[in-house]
Amino acid sequence: MLKRLLPLLALAALALAPQSLPSLHELVITLNGRYNSIHTWEADFTQVYTAGLTTQTESGHLYLQKPGKMRWDYTEPVKKTFLVAGDTVWQYTAGDRVPTESQVKNLNDLRSPLRFLLGHLDLDKELDQLSFSGMQPWQPGDRVIEGIPKAPVEDAGWRKVWIEVSPAYEITRLVILSLDGSQNDIRFSNIRVNRGLPHHIFTPPHPPSLSRTPKS
To answer: How far apart are CA 160 and CA 176, in angstroms?
Structure first.
């Protein structure tokens, strides 16, 4: 009887033993590979912007499609849309008669770590002083890495980024420290990957279409 139990006891002990966490290098390599295999990505988001003693919280839904397309549909507290498609950016807030249109030369002109998700992700090449952070994760079990831009901060447009990664290698949070000391804390939930997105999501916004959020 004991001989029969020993293999089962060994398996039980293995299952209960603490699992080793990936090293920083392993986490970064796996994260790069995962996001470079993604074609479409969407999630609900909550964005907390802090500047001095002022804090503003907004929420909505984000759509990404490679290469170079993203749409932020804000629903609270004010309905507005921020759309990037190719080299053009459109911004629209409820009540505007027409969206504001501007041009970007390339993804770098977005001046934000969010552009990493729109192209080829290679954190080792994008970030300097990459390390695990002491920042408290938003979700239990997540790990937070941090880094600074390799380019001069004046060219990058930001000083530091914290990236929260789930055990499934999902980016669940980005915290971006800007040149002026303000901070953008963006948290993602209900993440959906490679499920396809309707083409109309990335057409320029116009007032009648913004009364309802496009569905995937």
So the answer is: 6
